[in-house]
Amino acid sequence: MTTDLAQARPSELSLTALFLKFLRFGFLAFGGPVAQIAMIRHALIEEERWIEPARFNRLLAVLQVLPGPEAHELCVHLGMVARGRIGGLLAGLGFMLPGFALMLIAGWVYVGWIAGSAGLSGMLLGVQVVVLAVILRAVVRIGEHIVEDRLLALVAAASLLATLAGVAFWIPLVAGGLAYAVSHRPVAAIAVILAAAGVAAAVHLTATTASSGPATAAAPVTLAALFVAGLKGGLLTFGGAYTAIPYVRADTVGRGWIGDGTFLDGIALAGVLPAPLVIFATFVGYVAGGPGGALAITAGMFLPAFAFSLILFERLEAIVENPALHRLLAGVAAAVVGIIAATFVQLGQATGARVAEPWFALLLFAAALVVVWRIKGAWATPAIVAGGAIAGWLGMSV
Asked: Of 40, 56, 146, 213, which one is least surrounded by beta carbons within 10 A?
């Protein structure tokens, strides 16, 4: 194994070789971000010594604070180390393309043969029930890393309640970030909370007034709207890919373009493919808007992950060292935890409304929760999804 950084010379890689190296990583990217990052670290840091381990650790710390899938952003940055910004672009594309292509195929198969099939309804419902257990475990895992004190717990709880009450998603995000940033000044924090409550009331009143007017048709599916849905998810993905779920759901399920069951099916598929979990957006875009919709929402979802590394990285470490901004981001991240928890509740209600055998569904959910809580490894999520499909086929119906 090479131990001298100068001897590795990743800059000598051709652009084609660089792309193929990260394409290989993409085909092997099973098991979520932890497994993906471990694979990249072993290959490029421990074996090929592209950068020093201390620098790698610092890079990971920076990426943890930023929105976006960390493993993908890591590939973009390491591609820049090798061959500049073109290298970063090719590395990021190589890492995401296998999962993107497989999800396109999955969406095509789902729309053409699976959706609406009466014989598969129980199987799909079983998958959706166990995916709820996976999401709940993710909420707890994310919360353990983000909710570090009582104030952040209060921010998360308030965000949960506000989201369930129908408050627009951006209000708890802004209020949570600002309130935690100025929490050392109680008067300012109270002022932020009161202002947020006033804005929420005004937005609710405006929406109520608008809804009392003549009925209008649901907004049509457009590529621009799907791109914005993906972009919103990509910009607000703090603490893991599961944080993109509520924003993509609000802009697709919330507009009636797809159902909650189909949305959960997409999350289940993303959990078993070699890709960042945010690739579920590709499935959602395909079901809602065909191949063009899949491309549009995927472009929006991954654009921030490319942009932060390609454009802004030279300034990121200085920004992250700013304590005030760090507290602001911590407050935003805690608010996101509350929003994900609320989304879990909403998805659970939607799934429960379609279950004919609630006790069987509860037992399946509890069993999946025990498995996902106690067992780790790249094979855990695929095994849970497969088990849910079998159990649903044997004992559930819509």
From this structure: 213
Within 8 A by CB and 6+ apart from 305, the residues are: 68, 69, 72, 73, 76, 92, 234
Tens place of pLDDT per residue across the chain (398 aa): 344 434 456 767 889 999 999 999 998 886 667 668 878 888 898 888 888 887 777 677 667 667 778 788 889 989 988 888 899 999 999 999 999 999 999 999 988 887 666 556 677 778 778 878 877 887 887 788 778 888 999 999 998 998 888 787 778 888 888 888 888 777 777 787 778 777 767 665 554 444 444 444 457 888 999 999 999 888 877 655 667 888 888 889 988 999 888 888 888 788 778 888 789 999 999 999 999 999 999 999 999 888 877 877 666 656 655 666 778 878 887 887 888 788 788 778 877 777 777 888 888 889 888 888 887 765 677 778 788 878 877 876 54
CA–CA distance from 47 to each of 39, 57, 380 (Å)? 11, 16, 27
Q: The pTM is what?
A: 0.72
130-to-42, 137, 350 alpha-carbon distances in Å: 32, 11, 14
| Cα gap 1→42, rounded to integer Å | 11
| Residue that is written with structure tokens 């709940």 in the block | 136
Provide the token pair at 145.
Answer: 């890393």
* C-beta of residue 355 within 8 angstroms of C-beta of residue 125: yes
